[in-house]
User: Fold these one by one.
Assistant:
Number 1:
Amino acid sequence: MLDFVIQKMLNRKWIVLCLLVGNILLVGIACCNPMYTDAIQQKTLNRNMSNFIVENNRYPGTIVLSAQLKVNEEGNTAEQFTAARDAIGEIRDQLTVPSLMEVYHYCIPKMDAMTDYTYNGEQQKKKLTVGYIEDLSEHVKMVSGDFYSDKTGEDGVIDAVISQKGLVSQKLLIGETLTFSELKDKEGNPVRIRICGVFENSEDEDLFWVNSPSTFTSEILISEKVFNDTFVDYDNPVYGMRGTFYLLLDYEQIRGSNVSKLLARTKEYVNAYSQISSVTFTAYYQNLLEQHQVMVRRVVSTLQILQVPILVLLAAFIFMVSRQILEIEKNDIAILKSRGASKKQLVISYLMQGGILAGIGFVIGIPVAVLLCQMFGSANAFLGFVQRSALHIRISAGVLLYGLAAVILSVTAMTLPVFKYADLTIVEHKQKQSDKKKRVWWQKYFLDVLLLAVSLYGLYSFHNQRDLLVDRVAKGGSLDPLLFLSSSLFIVGASLLALRIIPLILSLIFRIGKKKWDPAWYASFLRVLRTRNKQYFIMMFLTLTIALGIFNAKSARTINQGEEERISYAVGADVVLQERWSDEEEEQEEFPEEEQEGDEAEAEPVQINADDYTEPDIDKYASIENVTDITKVYVTDQATISVESTVAEQNSEVPGKDGKGNKKEEKQDWGQQQVVSQQIRLMGIDTKGFGETAWFDTKLLPTHWYHYLNAISQNASAILVSSNFRDQLGYQLGDSLTYRTVTGADVKGQIFGFVDYWPTYQPTAEGTAEDGASTTVNQYLVVANLKKLQSVDGILPYQVWLRVDGSTQPVYDFIGDKQIKLVSFEDRQSDLIDMKNEPIIQGTNGILTVGFIVVLLLCGVGFLIYWIISIQSRALQFGIFRAMGMTMKELMAMLAGEQLFITLPALLTGVAIGLLASRLYIPLIRIAYQTTQSALPSQVESAGADIVKMFVVVVIVVGICMAVLGWLISKIRISQALKLGED
Amino acid sequence: MENQVQTIIEARKVSRCFPMAQGEDFYALKDVSLQIPEKKLTILRGRSGSGKTTLMNILGALDKPSSGQIFFDGKNITELDEDACSLMRRQKVGFVFQSVALIPMMTAYENVEYALRLSGYEGDWKERVEECLRMVGLTARMNHMPEELSGGEQQRVAIARALAHRPKVIFADEPTAELDSGTGLQVVKIFQKLVQEGEATVVMTTHDVGFMEVGDKVFELEDGEIISER
């Protein structure tokens, strides 16, 4: 039987090849999702970890167990203390990720110490922590002095080393001896410690220094042995002691495959240790990995959803081709049946054929998936690729499972139609033919209307829950798969409905000129109308293909464009930077590393004074290559306005909850009314420069935004304010508004315009309500003339906005060369690149592009196959036409007519449905990609160029098709064609 | 007697060879010469493979001879190109084939009408279609699709279609082969009637010796040559 099947396949090599292509693509597409997710997961994981080091100056693989030994408490804290240390070993063995190092640090914190040295006749009092770190000697080099010895000196003085930073900030000297009145030696005398040396880390990059030596500002380190001999008595603790144990995991070994396990274990520990008051467990990577998992889930679900229509289309393709094969072979089947072949045998023979094809498809499909994955990885835009470092792709068991599922799907699609055909005997075969007039099942049961209704209902309910969706995505959830499903249902339902309507229109046209149609077109019309059930599938296929292609193209364009605009809008200009204006700022910058845990005290509002700052020269930026425009933009969020509290209450969208930090507490009683001060964002601009430099989409405001700029440029006290001043606070155009600047000056401005959008301005922000739930908080914006503000406040630090034509690299070079110190720096281009590198965007672009290409390929191949087979099976019919005296030209005209009546309506409906679906669903789907709340309205981008591309391909395919068909037909000899019928 | 009968088709030394894969050419027809009388029923008889169908296809301008000439209605059709042959066929010739050769997506009526449409028939189509269907006795079922008709009925529609546009010659290739003898006889009777009423010339091939009697003229073929003429 196998020989028979293989022989049969070889006889039909072209169509079998097409089927094979379908199988390969099916496996390829199905497998590349898990493959890509795995690879991109690894890549982003590594990148995020490296970024973590840069941003936090901490090693992300660190686990910290901090234990307290408390005095005057029942013995168990001592047990917990030692148990915590032992736990490090257990954790190391339990976690699947190998560790690089363990660091054990013990100390007695903040003891009073008196210096021997007197200053102005008085001894100096210090607060110093005394501690030791195991194996310290291997990781330090002495800057001056000596390393401590392991023994107490003969004079009873203990040697200690101190970091450079500690020496300076504690104002100590080498050789100085300190007396600790609270620490006693065995004889009960106060312990005396001498600073014997100053250390620094021996290597620049040393994991040992989880906290760098410069953070040891108030700690002196002594020998482990001396520490234990002198201070430690676990049975009867004398001193409150802290042990901090670090386990450093090799974060490069954290793989996508072991993240969830690691995270689960880590959470177990966190939970377990949260029960023990004296021990805290912290894993630096925990947050990072949790975010990572959320990201992965989002990527997986989004890609899967985007993939489904393509897979369905592929399965449909395979089904269609299989049915076509059966259509050619149905005579053979009938003959085999009449010669005694059982239905089972027939099904098995086709199952074998399907199995062989799917098997080959699986073997070739996996490498194809690897290729597609690399394509995903370099996708930069829809149908756009860039060179990126290659993804590290693994073929995991999961991938093979997906492949296997695809194989099963494909074999099913290939074998399913056999059952229908295998039942046929010659007699039944003839009888079957007379069933043609029957309605197809989906028309009978109004499946098209049903699908459309369901999808539209879905759309309607999603629209109603729009805010909920936004909220869900903002919290890291993925978009409801039902939304994507709903869009697919819409496309399918609308296509089916169109299939119901198109023949009616065609038949109307046919009837109008029944007598006048020339023979060729008359035959085309009849063919299309009378055998419409046979045409439904190819029409459906074409319509779906085109609709999906357009939907994909527009989705991709909209997502990319939307994200680009969002970033451009949020940054404001090509480069936005702020120089460091005073030394004070520098001081603040240098020490951000001190323990930041715990509640940060609300910073006292510092009185800001222009005299504290020196304005740098900003004209220097004009000399940078590529920089075309520069402007000064003063931005502060510390300005305020006074708002009646009743109004203020309404501002917050969660009833009764005020956004944290957005409103100051100071309340004044003005008679009956309570007036609170509302923080606003105050922006001072130089209108001309701002107009030239800032990035702003002119479509965002009702008139060109230059009109707004011009309006306030004429009048020094003119201001533009955000629309919520009007909508929430009741201001009118021309009203005057008094706002308080950071220096405390009250400035009166006149409202010259309300704006919904303004560069960098977000109308609402995520805030945290008092109960901890996230809530939306209104942001108020006032745009004033910079000169006006400077005349009131003096010159305060402002941002410099640059418009850069081309690469921003020269800006970086310039800043590097001139050693300009910056407080902030934002580069639109690099933000855009980061956005394009985001796995979800990259993967979406990848899958939509690949999907689009596959769709085009299928469209072409499917079309060609359909027609070739249709023509081959109609050879006899053509013979009849020719014998009746139809010329070759007329025969071609007849076929062209069929194309016109089948392909053209299918293509046009495809376009219409694609556009309609885009319009209805893309605004909702875009929500899935909005990582932060976007102020910008989402509008569906046109993808004209892509649609043109698609049509060029379609036209080429149809052209090739016609050429092939013409050639095929010209090869048919009438006499031979007629003979075919004689058998 | 001879002078009264006009010749509608004349074949002069017609050969048809098919190149074979082995290199040896196969001659389906070897120097065949014959004359088909007008308004008569001519029968080409021979066993399967004798070349009768090839000869008929060449006479009806469906195929071209390798050598020799065909004069159809006084015109040398061997010199015509493809399109001219097609035009000639649609005007002057009607074909009936052994197997069912109706256009499947058209009703019986439309099948017949289509011949009129193709030939650009000037008269009233409806009248002519019904007339032809009446001639073959199928008016009752004219709005049925071919697949709803029996083999004999289909063949009768094919005949109606072949004669609808008033061709000079109707070629029928084994029109009775797939029909039972009763129905076959009916079909032949229709041809006889057509000839008798002066509607057309009929050329029919058959392997059945039983039909030799009904022909006004009978050519017997074997291995591509005419072995007898009556």
Number 2:
Amino acid sequence: MSKEGGSDQFSGRMGLIFASIGAAIGTGNIWRFPRMVGANGGGTFLIPWLFFLFAWSIPLVIAEYAMGKRSRTGTIGTFRIFAGKKFAWMGLWTAWISTAIGFYYAVVSGWTIKYFQLGITGALNGEGVDTTEVWNAFLQSSGQVIFFQFLVIVLTLAAILKGAKAIEKVNIYLMVSLFALLFLTLFLSLWMDLSDGTLDGALFMFTVDFDMLFEPEVWINGLSQSAWSCSAGMGMCITYAVYMSKDEDTVLNAFTMGLANNSISIIAGLAVLSAIFAVSDDPLATVTGGSSAITFLALPEVFAQAPGGNIGPLFMMAGFFLALSFAAMTSMISTVELCVRNFVDHGYDRKTSVFITGAAIFFFGIPSAVMWIKLDSAGVAFPEFLEVQDHIWGYGLMFSGLFIAYTIWQYGYKKWQADVEQGLAEPGFKGYLTTGVPAFRNDFINTGDNDMYVNRIWDILIYIAFPVLFIILMASYFGDMIANTDDVWNPSNPHGLGIILMFWGVVGGLFIALNKLLVSRPLYRNVPEGAECDISMLPGGDDQMIVLVGESAPDLQ
Amino acid sequence: MSSKVVAISTRPSFGFIIALPLLLSLLAPIANASVAQEEPTGMAPEDVWSYDYANMIFPWADEGERILQFKEYHTYETMKLRMMRLAEDNPNIFEFHEGLLGGTNARGEVVGADAYEGWYYGHSSPWLKITGNVKGGDYNPFVGDKGNYEDRHDVMIVGNHHAREWMSYQTPILVMEVIAFSYGNIGYDNDGDGQVDEDPWGDADGDGVLDDDGDCLALDASFQDSNGDGTPCGAGDLGVDEDYSEQWITDLVNRREIYLIPMLNVDGNIYDREEYCAAPAWESCPTSGWRKNLRDNTVTGVTPMPDLDEEVDPSCDGVDLNRNYQFEWGAPLGATGPLFPGMCYNPMGGGNNDVYNGPVDTVDQDGDFRLNEDHVDGKDDDGDGLTDEDWLGGNSEPETKFIQDMTEMNDDNADGASEFKATLTFHSFSELVLYPWGHCTNCESPDHQQLIYHGDQMAEMTQYTNMQSSDLYPTSGDFCDWHYGVHGSYCYTMEIGTAFHQHEDDVDHIAVRNLGVAFYMTEVADNPRERADLAMSDITNQSLQTPDEVNIPDEGNIPIDMCIDKNFPYSLDVSDSHVMWRTVKPSRMQSDYGPREWSTTGWTNTLFEVVDSENCVIGESKNGTILRASLDISETTTGELHYKVMLGTLSGGDLYEYPAQGSYYTLDLSYREAYGSVLGSLFLFAIVAGFVWGGLAVCLRMMLSDDEEFIDLADAVLEEEMKTED
């Protein structure tokens, strides 16, 4: 196959797995997870968190893999094919949310590299180092923040420029190093915690408070951690599934990715909590402070007290922040790739796509890097513009997941109706249950390539659990926001709901308006040789503008 | 020169004040000559006030109407006509009554309206019911009053128990005039100085000077003692407490039911005026006159038997109404009964029995064939389980029965207790404020401190002397002992003026001087005890524990203490007094990049309990009362505790918030529970690790074996191909 216009795919199973895990594991595992454990009763939190891995994240990831593997396009193409021409904008939304997050995620990734640099040079563990001063000084020097943001983007672009093979290679190296570094940190943390006689950090992390277990708040937090940390429903897996070989097992991959994600969370959580419990007077207050605060203020202080003279703290500091930067980088890679894939699908040259995306992420990220750097009540600097971006787009991720579920529901319903017309299925609710509901599962998941088959449980999770949980999640967050924010509907309040709805309205409205233009363009599917990706039964199946890579779209002839 | 005047005016002597205008007129030209720029320090009244005010001309009548201007005394007839006139002109707030309609009273007696008519002239006491929308409330058929409202507290203002004490009815009449004029007349400039409501009664700004706006003090010293009592700018002087708030009076009228009885003893008053003292009475009997009512005391002493003598027998007839009330009636202090039935004269004193308390009761009220075995003193004297049910005597007169039935038949909320929490009676003379008890010496009532407090307030605004009634002289059966002793009403006797028959030139300023007292009592009539308690409490030093002071125990509820003044009339009802608290957890909305955010739970109210075993330090004193609320906060709670206090008074009328309105304290909560057990955590670790790592291992194993199969398959295919090639 020719390099130009040919299909692109991972060389093997491990490549896909590592890339997916890399996408799933981000800073959320390392700084959000310990905070959630601390704030939700230690081990108590693990129970809902694990439950929702299986009830929310893995079913969605299975769906994403299945869709991407069949459509062989990025998010826009996938929705165009699976949901129909009218719904290509959903894919654009998914791509936009991911990219918009990428704008500021590059800045955050830059922070982690800066802290690796500080750690390795020993700047964080001398006598009398005030970690707040270090943090404030860094955040307030725009040049430095932009430099590290730029560095992250350059590294990311370098990693993805060459396509799937390069992505998998980088991810394998980074992920293996991440595991190793986290284990190193964990080892040192446990040593620290044990040196005062008790492993109280570990004890806390694995002790259930049965009173708290029945608090809805803990379950909502477990759901949110699972929903946001695992990248489920965000389109990452659709994107990486494009590069799957034909006989990839989508279900097994989903389980592997989800479990690996949670494994890393446990290791990181244990490392962070043990270290903090080893030295802090009020460890829970420390661990439940703002996230960047734990990571960039508390942890350096804690790590500085690691055993082993100068070497221990140095190892711990450098190791931890390097691991953190690797976690951030791999997520950055998937974010950029998600966007790039959509460009490539629409006929853009990969190199051009990569540079366009990289430049966009850099320039649109600059405000997050330098604007509205404020001090909170404790005198700690924080980037308010970045926070507001996160506030606006973070919740949008959940809608990407909703669109995926919607696509599945719609497919099942249409399939059933078509079958009824042809006399293949019974009309009525019973017929819908037996023919419509399992249609997506039968047609795209249990295709014969999988070792693991999914049964009715998946249908139940996608058709019932997902919408219920989605509503609970959004209602609890937005309800909380409405209850706790002054002037919540005013769109000029950066922490309100009004600003979220306004930006969503503008972006969503724009995308719906652009939908016609979007589907008038040819879409090039990345179907590897030998992979049968028949889409004739899908709404996009009769779309003449959807062609394989290398082919020409009819109108352009 | 001017300093000389100031120095002298601080210690004025009567002679000097009289001579002052002369002195000033002599010295003024010299002053002008010597210090050209210096103006005289003082001003004349008409420089400051309107002509009317400066000449004490009341705004409700022409200058020439001497009675309405309080330059001449009202008689019973003019007073009654004026009351009727004002009731007709102010139908919304005034309703005119005479006596009561009657019916079955609180003691089960069937009485007619004639029961309240004076013995001799046959008039019932005229009175006004004063309240907002006076004809729109509940109807009281016994009283004949349509202005009863459950949520308005009642106040009774009574004048002229004693016939000759003429200022004691003139003052309530002035109260009536002021209410009629001020109600709804918001922002009236009483003194015409261009300012409104700038000088209310009493020392409103707390600087120790009654003249809050300083207009009297700004006058030339010669004008500062307009009432000539020797005190410059004292109570009753022009410019002192002269511009009260009409809004306040209007609100008072709308919030209270005022029962204004200016002349209780009509019989005696007519007799005193027309028969006993020759006009002008202030010359014929300034400090004497007719005191009692006109009961026709018989030679036999047995009431039903009529006296053959149709005329009043001044040497024998009459009952001292203010010794005739039932509470501790007949106690041999300051009142006299006949030594034996039929005697009119006090054999010990030899003179007119001016304090005769009325006949001994002859009815066996409880029908137990024992007479008068349980007299009215609030105790069950005969141990039969009933209190005060068979009295010794008292309330035998139409006038005192009128007061008794008026009091006892006014029960808007039907709880059996009198509605009159505040009562006021005017007498003459001595410039005193008297509070119960009267019947015992060296005794204190349960509300002693509180009674002193309100007495002090009224003494301040009148510049009279506040004292316990019995410290003047003991009296039994008086109005206030009965009101306070039987009905718990805060009752004050104002001994106003300096004579029984005050010279008519003094009527206006003495009435003005005592005007504020009536409004003060009206104001405090909702809950006088609590108002006194609050005023006496060191509320500013009451404090809620700050977060630093809270002692968080290792386990269990967290106590939050409030230190309050021992006098503070706190309520322990959780709806009035409570700690409002909420725990604040890290918010799930916490952004990954921003400052710490909190998620609040709703406020919870926790009730207070009194800690008896300890006292707290409040201000300088170490005997504050500790109120403690025990907050049910689990040991595993972390984050912040927000707390504040709402402290309500017993009546629920006042609410105090701590630390300050709209704010709260924040206390950091740390985890108080053990972090976990080794065994339990090992168990959960095994489960979690089994699920996550075990699951991951299984997945990876399946994946790798797949790859092996694939490799095997590929190898097989290759081999096959090679074979076929071969």
